[in-house]
Amino acid sequence: MTTDCPLALAETGPQEFTLTGTPADCVRLAVTTLFPDIDWVLSGINRGGNLGADLFTSGTVAAVREAALLGRPGIAVSQYIRKGLALDWERSSALALPVIEQLLREGCPPKGYWNLNLPHAEVRENPAVIRCDPDNEPLDIRFRQDGDCFHYDGSYASRRRTPGKDVELCFGGSITVSCLLL
Q1: What are phi and psi of 163, to 5 degrees?
Q2: Measuring CA to CA, which residue among 106, 102, 162, 111 is closest to residue 134?
Q3: CA 86, CA 120: separation in Å to the nearest integer?
């Protein structure tokens, strides 16, 4: 949250804005000031998965968590990307849309929000949509030093996976949906 400097707002189109803040800042300003009557907050599609432990550091998820804190349901949508493989973002949108529509119809528990992760699916695949809990296994956290710089040297794709949890299911090709509560 940005509390120590002004947030600059720019209108980029009708009812479309950019803000010089974090994703949670954007939701705070939108819900309290710009669009106080909104019913839902959607965040994403984020480049990269927000699976398991990623939930604690993700700006995409932070946006809908902030919405839930302010009494609005939300859906965070993230796209897992297998390193070295091209991704079809139109396909990602096509996969996400029916799931988002279903979640909007279903609603969300009070102080709840949805986390939706898309697998890096081949065009011919029709991935299953699976409701599951987030995995609580930590990421592979290793760094390589290069002079004064440090580079992440862990393997996101090789992280530990708990059977039936979001990491295993999304890496296995399924769309994962988790309902999270504050």
Answers
A1: -55, 135
A2: 162
A3: 9
Q: What is the DSSP string of 93-152?
A: HHHHHHHHHHHHHH---TTEEEEEEE----TT--PPEEE-PPP-PPP---EEEETTEEEE
User: Tens-of-pLDDT digits for all 182 residues of the chain?
Assistant: 899 999 999 999 998 999 999 999 999 999 999 999 999 999 999 999 999 999 999 999 999 999 999 999 999 999 999 988 889 999 999 999 999 999 999 999 999 999 999 999 876 778 999 999 999 998 889 999 999 999 999 998 899 999 999 999 999 999 999 999 99
Contact status, residue 134 vs residue 115, Cβ threshold 8 Å = yes
Return d(Cα 174, Cα 97) in angstroms, integer: 15
Fold for domain 40-181?
Answer: Stationary-phase Survival Protein Sure Homolog; Chain: A, (3.40.1210)
Token pair for 162? 């708990």
Tell me the sheet residues that pair with 49: none
- Give me the count of residues in the chain: 182
The Cα 94–Cα 4 span in angstroms is 40
Q: What are the sequence ranges of the domains in the chain?
A: 40-181
> Measuring CA to CA, how many Å separate 8 from each of 12, 64, 119?
13, 21, 35
Residues 6+ apart with CB under 8 A from 37: none
